[in-house]
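batch job 7 of whatever, protein = Putative pre-16S rRNA nuclease
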Amino acid sequence: MKTLGLDVGTKTIGVALSDAMGWTAQGLETVKRDPEAQDVIPDRLMEIIKGNDVSKIVVGLPKNMNGSIGPSGEACMAFADLIGEHTDLPIQMWDERLTTVAAERMLISADVSRKKRKKVIDKMAAVMILQGYLDSKQN
């Protein structure tokens, strides 16, 4: 059984998937999202969930630096609730503070062009969210 990691934004959702042992996270893709339909799960995301033997979903929770939850965090929690209603899978929220910044730095250090970074940044953030969760379970 695999764990799915999501970096939920208003326009895109970065998607990562664990290996069957739950040790490593691999980036899958970035799923486009309709900004006007924030209460809809994209069909492609449901295809990924159904087609990959997913047993749990980890959703990044963007907290403020002081630990409080702002509008982005509330939107991610609402999306997580929506996924939970449609899949019956356990949903785990995971603190994602600075994951996008860390993903951006990693891509810059790998000399990835700005244009290419934009295409993969959400997927990389999903990998970092999921890997952080998986690492916490190993310890």
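notes: The CA atoms of residues 64 and 70 lie 7 Å apart.
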